[in-house]
Design goal:
Strand content of chain A: over 45%
Largest interface: A-B, 41 and 40 residues
Low-confidence stretches of chain A: none
Order of helices and strands of chain A: EEEEEEEEEE
Largest sheet of chain A: 10 strands, antiparallel, barrel
Oligomer: homodimer
Number of helices of chain A: 0
Number of domains of chain A: 1
Helix content of chain A: under 10%
CATH class of chain A: Mainly Beta
Structural class of chain A: mainly beta
Distance between the termini of chain A: 14 Å
Number of strands of chain A: 10
Mean pLDDT of chain A: 97
CATH superfamily of chain A: Calycin beta-barrel core domain
CATH architecture of chain A: Beta Barrel
């Protein structure tokens, strides 16, 4: 039985679904690739969304990346993201909602890096939902590369 | 069909299971409580474990806490943890294995905090598996309280 949505999540409820589709990965230091992906935003009745992501190679379904984290309303209309990557990285990002669009940046949060973690210094995420379509872009900066477009994807809502 | 375990995960494979049990939460600034909990360490064939945690109040199953993250072998026998909390927090922690015991500290990693994130400054986790029992302790420091025992739990392996 699904718990009741926490009233603080009303403005973020447009994200609540499983979204599936495909994306393109580019970056100056890596070979470009195309990936399959599924994102899920769910809730447990508390004032945060649970975010789960996995992507895979379309050829053989081999895992490409996983993300796990939480999105929650902060103060003064801000949205806060706390996220973990399997690359030895974490993200703390802040952003604001524009209707069903959300831009999140680590500029006032930060990227946490384990000793052998990837040399990422900043991440900007832009999500937009139009009807049953979620589109996003992710920009990334590393110690060697300034903030550069990294991921672009278009996903469709999976019928519940 | 389960993927084959990545050879880098052999020394961490004793964690691979769902563990369920109960714990006690104490801290100088909060009322003590008892909680139910389930931890899962799983893998996708890549060189990291996927860590999922949820705890609940025994009286009514109301959610207490959730954690999502990744544990992976680092360099020189080190283990690295990248974790997200719904409290606007992330952890980057390092540690070493002693048989089926693992101690992880944020001292050389760090706690990431969103603008309204809890004022946590450090976390030390100690996990130990003996047969079908996983015991752990979590110590926590905040801006107001030095490193102090926070959680103690005993969980049992859930038959697969």
């Amino acid at each position: 039985m699904d718990p009741e949505l926490h009233p603080d999540l009303t403005s973020l409820s447009f994200l609540l679904a499983t979204w599936r589709g495909e994306g393109d990965c580019t970056y100056p230091t890596i070979e470009s690739s195309h990936y399959g992906e599924e994102l899920t935003f769910s809730h447990v009745g508390e004032p945060y969304l649970v975010y789960t992501q996995r992507s895979w190679m379309p050829e053989d379904n081999a895992p490409v990346h996983l993300e796990r984290g939480f999105l929650r309303p902060g103060a003064e209309g801000e949205v806060e993201l706390a996220l973990a990557h399997p690359l030895g990285l974490t993200e703390i990002a802040h952003g604001t909602l524009h209707g069903t669009g959300l831009e999140l940046s680590t500029a006032q949060g930060g990227v946490g890096r384990a000793h052998t973690g990837l040399a990422v210094t900043g991440i900007v995420r832009r999500y937009r939902v139009d009807g049953d379509v979620l589109r996003y872009e992710v920009d990334m900066a590393t110690e060697d590369t300034p903030m550069t477009r990294h991921l672009v994807a278009e996903l469709r809502k999976v019928p519940a």
